[in-house]
Amino acid sequence: MDNTSQILERSAELFSGQRLLLVNPPADGLTRSLSADWTLWCWDYASSRGLAGALPEERLVFSHLCPQVDDLDAAILVMPKAIERAEYALAQMVPLLAQGKPVYLVGEKKGGITRAEKLLGRYGAHPEKLDSARHCQLWRVIVDQPVAPFLLEDWRQQYELRFDDQPLQLVSLPGVFSHGRLDEGSELLLAEQRPLPAGRVLDFGCGSGVLSLVMARRNPGCRFELVDIDALAIYCARQSLALNGVEAEVHASDGLSDVHGRFSAVISNPPFHTGIRQDTSIAERFFEQVTRNLQPGGELRIVANGFLRYPPLIEEHIGPCQVLRENNRFKVYSAVAPG
Ligand SMILES: C[S@@+](CC[C@H](N)C(=O)[O-])C[C@H]1O[C@@H](n2cnc3c(N)ncnc32)[C@H](O)[C@@H]1O
């Protein structure tokens, strides 16, 4: 069981038999081992898939929005890696609690739980640390003031990006990659204007959808399919596409778990760290598996930090790897699947 779940289990007397909202849970057995009336809100599709079957479907919600649960005894947030995501989640959770009810925050010391006092102090006068174990802390505050209802518009950012050939409207939410700006790596990938092979194009780890949006206008013969693990990214990508009048399919996937069929091209600025530690395993798994989704002669076009040793992996699984563009930080790679 995850360390955060173990520390919650140690305080089982606080939670047993209660009506609880658990937000951003890891995919483990906590809801089975700690008997309570659970509702779970996940924005991570891997956790949501991992927890499927642990609870009735309506008690496990994968969304950018918190499920509306009545008569809660308490709400628990497992600290996300981005502090602004924690603020976004608490702003939705706390209005569901009556005054006098507790909200808990649990997380790893290396993962920002040290900010708990400040985060919880907005909702009650006395945030307190209840436990510290397994490199984690458990905090609580009793909600002691009226809290404004959550309005998505207050958190949703809409901004314009200007490319040589087009302006673009993008929508973003807290914790979505490159919130409110264009990532330097994505910018380099988009500076490469050579056409993509016509047909179905997969945008892996789409974030707010910037790669597909720009490339869809440049490649009218392509149909784009966007996937991401993050429910907030999926919402933002759908909104961005609609705002710019671009038609494309957007859905959740953990890696290529929910990607079916073959594509004439796959584009990506692949994730290379998750959580607190630097980690390239998602990208490595992606290179290994993407061959199944590339048509013969299909192109993989990605951008990555120049120091990441991706070319040997790309060559092992797909084919000769060409550098299309580079600057002092990033490289744009292209590889074509054997025809
Ligand atoms: C470097 S960002 C790129 C976002 C966007 N394409 C851009 O260029 O701005 C990588 C994206 O991959 C997503 N991601 C992380 N792990 C993933 C996984 N296992 N499966 C699918 N997407 C994942 C993240 O949520 C993030 O949106």
TrEMBL record:
Name of the molecule in the record: Ribosomal RNA small subunit methyltransferase C
Occurrences of domain Methyltransferase small N-terminal (ranges): 5-159
CDD domains recorded: AdoMet_MTases
Function: Specifically methylates the guanine in position 1207 of 16S rRNA in the 30S particle.
Family listed: Belongs to the methyltransferase superfamily. RsmC family.
Methyltransferase small domain boundaries: 168-334
Chief place of localization: cytoplasm
Localization, UniProt: Cytoplasm
A single Gene Ontology CC term: cytoplasm
Highest taxon of source: Bacteria
UniProt keyword annotations, A-Z: Cytoplasm, Methyltransferase, rRNA processing, S-adenosyl-L-methionine, Transferase
Subunit structure: Monomer.
Reaction equations catalysed: guanosine(1207) in 16S rRNA + S-adenosyl-L-methionine = N(2)-methylguanosine(1207) in 16S rRNA + S-adenosyl-L-homocysteine + H(+)
PANTHER family (UniProt xref): RIBOSOMAL RNA SMALL SUBUNIT METHYLTRANSFERASE C
Molecular functions per Gene Ontology: 16S rRNA (guanine(1207)-N(2))-methyltransferase activity; nucleic acid binding
HAMAP family: 16SrRNA_methyltr_C (MF_01862)
Enzyme Commission (EC) number: 2.1.1.172
